[in-house]
Automatic annotation (TrEMBL):
Record InterPro entries: Myb/SANT-like_dom
PANTHER family: EXPRESSED PROTEIN, MYB_SANT-LIKE DOMAIN-CONTAINING PROTEIN
Annotated region (Disordered), positions in chain: 188-212
Organism: Aphanomyces euteiches
Name this protein carries in UniProt: Myb/SANT-like domain-containing protein
Length: 310
């Protein structure tokens, strides 16, 4: 028998082990990436930081005794994110839900054939195809996938902050600019008033006018600085009010109401309060609303237990 016979672990043209993906392998690296992003903050503007990829790859290779490389992991990541983008578009329409117990998408109103009329062909495969790692994908990419391409964004409200200049900055300050503008306005008003005063009562001959004193100029500058300072203080107060009271998304507010309405009396008060903590995550609040019936209850109970055990 030839010794060169291909074994169970085949190689590609570059000599790397061919990646044979399973749901368990996907779950391993998805969980690790979620940990890197949500616990350690390893997300970057273009996706994930190098440390996050390395940690996910080490976890995958260690737990499943494989020797995959980062390119293979990223290729699988891109494939899963395409699938997640498709099902996310489906779930944004009415009448579709995700069944946690079967890991399948189900029509809540009518049949699949009716639902698929006029919809993209890529949706049809999900009538029978399972997505066991949908919840992990939703936790990782929820709110970041819009059109099938990876786009990083934050679900938290954006707050516009004022730019605070460096004390050593040579550019004129806001106060100085406002004073100049106020002085110009005052000078223009004075010119108009001066022209009126210079006209003699009986003719067009001008009357000599005293020049503005140094004290008057100083008072005008003080007035301008005071008005400018008040505007800056008011603007800063508005920003601080926004920071002190962040906006709550509609999904978070709706999920909290549904939790209290449907599970009050079923869960004890402590579990309900922990459930509210779970729903502070906009992604989890959206997922909670997309589920229904017993699936919704099982899901929130599981999330509450995870938070209790952490």
């Amino acid at each position: 028998m030839s010794k060169n016979k291909t074994n169970a672990t085949s190689k590609d043209t570059c000599g790397n082990e061919r990646a044979r993906w399973t749901d368990d392998k996907d779950a391993t690296w998805l969980k690790e990436l979620n940990h890197q992003v949500h616990v350690l903050g390893k997300r970057s503007d273009s996706g994930f930081k190098k440390e996050a990829w390395n940690a996910a790859l080490v976890k995958l290779n260690g737990e499943h005794r494989v020797s995959y490389n980062k390119d293979q992991l990223k290729a699988r990541h891109n494939e899963l994110i395409k699938q997640y983008s498709v099902v996310s578009s489906m779930l944004k329409t009415s009448g579709i839900g995700f069944d946690v117990s079967t890991c399948r998408f189900s029509c809540l109103d009518g049949s699949w054939s009716n639902f698929l009329e006029g919809q993209p062909e890529s949706w049809a495969v999900w009538e029978s195809k399972q997505f066991p790692n949908y919840l992990l994908c939703n936790e990782l990419w929820g709110g970041t996938v819009a059109t099938g391409e990876y786009a990083s964004s934050s679900s938290a409200p954006r707050i516009q902050t004022m730019a605070i200049s460096d004390p050593d900055d040579e550019r004129p300050s806001l106060v100085e600019d406002d004073v100049v503008e106020d002085n110009i306005d005052d000078e223009q008003n004075d010119l108009r008033e001066g022209k009126k005063r210079r006209l003699a009562p009986g003719g067009s001959k001008s009357v000599p006018r005293d020049r503005e004193s140094l004290g008057s100029k100083f008072l005008a500058e003080i007035r301008g600085m005071k008005d400018s300072g008040e505007r800056e203080v008011n603007a800063l107060a508005d920003v601080l009010r926004c920071i002190a009271s962040p906006k709550i998304s509609k999904s978070q507010e709706g999920a909290a109401k549904v939790l209290q309405r449907e599970l009050e009396g079923i869960l004890d008060d402590d579990d309900l309060l922990i459930g509210m903590d779970v729903l502070e995550n906009p992604t989890k609040a959206s997922c909670f609303l997309q589920l229904s019936g017993q699936l919704r209850k099982k899901w929130i109970v599981r999330e509450i237990k995870k938070l209790q055990d952490s």
